[in-house]
Amino acid sequence: MKDPLLKLKILTRTESALLKIQLRRTVNFILIYVVAFLFITISFCMLNFAAYQALAESMGPAMAALLVALADGILTFILIFISQQVGKESEQEMMLRDIRDLALNELNADVDEVKSKVTKVSDDVQNIRTGLSSFNGASSINILGNLSPILNLLIDLLKKGSSK
Question: What is the reported pTM?
Fold first, then answer.
C-alpha cells in the first residue's frame, strides 16, 4: 500500500467499526444484567414466598428458608454465567483489529521513510553550504569536488521527477 490517505481511511473505518462493536456488546451486556436483575427481583419475591410457605409446613421454617436461599443462589450464578458469554470477542472484531494494526504499521513505515528523506536533504544542504564556504578560497582542482553535493542533489531531484 503506497497511498497514506488510503491507510488513514482504513484506520479510521476500522477504529469506527471496532467502537461500534464494543458499544453494542456493552449495551447488550448491561441490558442482560438489568433484565436478569428485574426477573430475579420480581420472580423470586413470589417464588421465595410460595416455596417458603410450602416447605415451612413440611420441614419447618429454618429448613424452608435454607432451601429457598440455595435455589436463589444457583439461579443467580446461572444468569451471571450467561451474561459473561455475551462479552467474548468475536472473529469480526479480531479481523478488524488486525487490519487496524496493519494500517498503523504501514503509516509508521511511511513516516520513517519521510524522516529519512528529510534527513538526507538536510545533509545534502549542509554539504552544499560547507562546499560553498570552502569554495571561496578553493583552487580550480577542488571545484568539481565542491560541486558534487549540488550535482548529487540535482540528480536526485531529476530522478524523482522522472519517476512520477
Answer: 0.39
